[in-house]
Give the backbone structure.
Amino acid sequence: MPEARKSQEESLLSAIAGFDQAFAEDRGSDVADFFAEDARLLWPFMEDIVGRESIREALVHFVSTYTTNSWSPNREIIDICGRRAYTLARFIEIRTPREGGPTEKVHGRMLEIWQLSPDDKWEITRLMTGRYAETEFLE
């Protein structure tokens, strides 16, 4: 693997690890920092959420509604092409509503499109999630 490609992949993996850690720790505002200024978040059953600050609002609201007990993504780096990268993942999120109710086990998929910003920081430009199974309710 050429050195430049290896360096890009290592920095992408570092960004992904930071994103996952922030998500697992319910730090919605920090998760939003991984998105580009003009990013789009495509959540199921919702209109696109456009722009980092709108995404921040949505994520802060999400973590005020649920606490993440476990976040287990299984990503593949599909391709790094120039200054863009594409990842595909399956995930299991176990979360509990903060106001009470059963713990939920969510089975999902996500497609991420990352790009290197002008200052060589990986940012998400598109994140699309979907479910591949019914939500399980745990006791």
Notes: The chain has a mean pLDDT of 95. Helices lie at 3-24, 28-32, 52-65. The chain is about 30% helix and 50% strand. The chain has one domain: 3-138.
